[in-house]
Amino acid sequence: MLFQLDGYKALNPERKALAPILEKLSADLRKVGHVTDSTVQQMSPLDRTALSRELRRILTSMQSVHDALAHELRFLNQINVNRFRQ
């Protein structure tokens, strides 16, 4: 390796595309977006548990996407961009 590239994982051609994942998460959030404190209080315990699990799944997926984006943002720093211009 000639020089160290921050966020080199962003160059991996086999990395997952993040846009489709974000679109699905956005759609999933829209499905539960109508829920308020009062509607949760009116739900049965089983429905509350299902909602809680769905929100936990969405949050976990968003954290994974956030971590993946962190690599890409490190790759796009000014030093790396300048190296490619040379």
TrEMBL record:
Protein name as it appears in the record: Uncharacterized protein
